[in-house]
Amino acid sequence: MTGRTRTGLSVAYQVDGQPCTLQIIDTNRPTRSYTLLSKPPFCLPYSDWSPDHHYAAMAAYQSGLLSVGVGRKGSDWDQVFAIPDVVAARVLVAWSQDSRQLAFINWSAEVTLIGTIRMENNIPGQVQLFTITGTQPIAYSSLAWSPDGHFIAFAAYDAPRRQGGQELYTLNLMDGSVRRLTTDTNVDESPSWSPDGSALVFTSAVAGYNELFIMDVASGERRRLTYYTNGYLPNWSPDGKSIVFESNLDYNYDLYIIGANGFGLRRLTYHHSPLELFPIWLR
């Protein structure tokens, strides 16, 4: 399976109410879409596929533990490994871009907890846990690996929960240090890295609308990408040219795409379903 079609890049997303279904769409010909997986033995509303499509994070049947499926064969897996003591319903996950590491953030804890797991010979290793003191996690906000695998960008309350602002941070996985990126009063969340690692796209609530912004990571300078779109969960394309995101601009959640330069906004889906969940680019 490849993320590049004859006409362009493809995006995968989950349809609300169908957590076991991953829908694929050609970004240049949105009418061309198909279902990748409809009846797996495990499924998770906020699951994530590794970029090489070899692994998937999911909820284990009965136990509810976060698990990693290895080696997809149609609707089944060669092996499924449960991660001890990590309840799937309480975490959001993200794969590193080389598909060798999985990160998760526990959004139900009283302090922000980020865990990483390295895949070795198709087997998940021990969890490395980072505690981000002075912050509390945001439910359902995504986290993102930097392209070099050295940093994780995430959003958190600056504590106590719902009394402080929702800000962006980066975790340095080499030394455990944390850098705060935003200090405004807006709701900042859902970061996604540019392919070269120099910038982040994220959402920020401005005058009643959730808008997309791009921030230069080194300088902290930002520029506004959208106006009055009410966008959510942006995801930067592997070629760096486009950003896909969700929007309920017409009171239905559908997928939209916009150039990283702020031009070319267009709609991808017209399903009029309650939600188009967590769009990801397939490489």
Short recap of the structure:
By secondary structure, the chain is an all-beta fold.
Topology:
Blueprint lengths: L9 E6 L2 E9 L6 E5 L10 E2 L5 E5 L5 E9 L2 E12 L3 E5 L5 E6 L5 E9 L2 E2 L3 E5 L3 E2 L6 E2 L5 E7 L8 E7 L5 E3 L7 E6 L5 E8 L2 E8 L5 E3 L6 E6 L5 E6 L6 E6 L6 E2 L8 E7 L1
Antiparallel strand pairs: 1-2, 1-26, 2-3, 4-5, 5-6, 6-7, 8-9, 9-10, 10-11, 10-12, 13-15, 14-15, 15-16, 16-17, 18-19, 19-20, 20-21, 22-23, 23-24, 24-25
Would you kindly provide a written description of the structure presented here, covering whatever features stand out?
By secondary structure, this protein is mostly beta strands. It has no helices and 26 strands. It has strands at residues 10-15, 18-26, 33-37, 48-49, 55-59, 65-73, 76-87, 91-95, 101-106, 112-120, 123-124, 128-132, 136-137, 144-145, 151-157, 166-172, 178-180, 188-193, 199-206, 209-216, 222-224, 231-236, 242-247, 254-259, 266-267, 276-282. Strands 8, 9, 10, 11 and 12 form a 5-stranded antiparallel beta sheet that branches. β14 (144-145) and β15 (151-157) form a beta hairpin. The model is unreliable at 1-8 and 38-42 (pLDDT under 50).
Keywords:
disordered N terminus, mainly beta, 283 residues
Radius of gyration: 18 Å
Question: How many extended strands?
Answer: 26
Percent strand equals over 45%
Order of helices and strands: EEEEEEEEEEEEEEEEEEEEEEEEEE
Low-confidence stretches: 1-8, 38-42
Residue share in helix: under 10%
What's the helix count?
Answer: 0
Straight-line N-to-C gap: 9 Å
Sketch the major β-sheet.
5 strands, antiparallel
Global geometry = globular
Structural class: mainly beta
Mean pLDDT value: 80
